[in-house]
Structure prediction request, 191 residues.
Amino acid sequence: MKSKLEIIAFYTLALILGGCVVQSVHPLFSENELIFDANLVGTWVEKDPNNVWTFEKKDNKTYKLTYTSGGKSGMFTAGLGAVGADKYLNLCPEDPNLPQNDFYKSHLLYMNSFAKIKFTDPDLTGQIMNPDGVKKLLEKKPKLLKHELVKDGVVLTASTKELQKFILKYGSDAKLEIFGEPEVLHRIKTQ
Prediction:
């Protein structure tokens, strides 16, 4: 049973962060569903050269992702897996090693976000889950997937298996815009 403090922390953080990306309490893949593809390892740049994605091998199943935008970086653990014929990344921020005390840190949640990816040699095409498209679908069909609407965004609370079923059924329907516009990343360096 969750304490009141955990519930309050969850909704506070969701309100602060909601709207930028679709966040999920649960990952898209279980550990045994993760796959490792060495083609992802390297440095990739978006059309805007200030946005750089660097994937390094973290272990046999995950990557360390450093995303740099406008000179500021964020570190993620990235897991790759497949839902149907498509590949997806599960992104979860790494512990930023904040100087605050443990009581403060216990209020932070490390939420997951998802991106559909496709290798288009020599490039990589990525589509981040679209908060507007997901919100629109879930407002029409609120029982479709467990979630909470917060501020202008969506926090998914469904299980990993429920998330996979949702993406399998709706993730490739371009009319629903569950995933955003494709962003082509160009490889600038292999690791």
Q: What stands out?
A: Residues 4-189 form one domain.
